[in-house]
């Protein structure tokens, strides 16, 4: 699959069938992960980093562009299912969205200082941290017997720094906010479904600002964003259904294992 997108850097879009299928599957899996368990938005970034010749800025810019639509769809889904209608949940979402106005541009600017190898190492570190946080989150949920549905107020002194860290990391790597936000929110005491809901709302702000930032540098490949983003949208709806109707323990375990297996490869990928 090396050299699958030979013309992407020069502005053209040439992709062989096998790579197109792989990238579309990364998008589908990412969408499912976004709304079912939170840490799914990293998968399109990983797919493009591993299977295209794009620069770190183009990987991040193209990935974050796909999250504008997935964030909007995920937000609408959780409004429909009621999580974002609760006042305390909406307040948390507003705090996270506000902090994203500051954190996201910082992350985009930091991307300029990251070379290809360093980008892979930092991405591997972020993937590992996410996997560990997701595992800790699951242990906590089982220990306290959380049903994952009830609203819980999150203090501003917790939500503000959390939102800044999440949005800066998302801007740097082109991630969806739920990747880090959901595990961190649950660890801070928010039930799973409200955490998923507020993370979707934050991701709309992160993705919109991040896309503008990377567009200014010419680092968004729209054909590639469409190739990944369309199946990612389908995955968002599938993941939303899984989160509400199906015990997702096996999916979470598989996602944790996949992230931990991919992390070393990302670190040493050139």
From TrEMBL:
It is a multi-pass membrane protein. The chain crosses the membrane at residues 21-51, 57-79, 91-110, 116-137, 158-186, 192-217, 249-268. It holds the Pfam family TauE. It comes from the Bacteria. One of its GO terms (cellular component) is plasma membrane. Signal peptide: none annotated. Its main location: membrane. Belongs to the 4-toluene sulfonate uptake permease (TSUP) (TC 2.A.102) family. This is Probable membrane transporter protein.
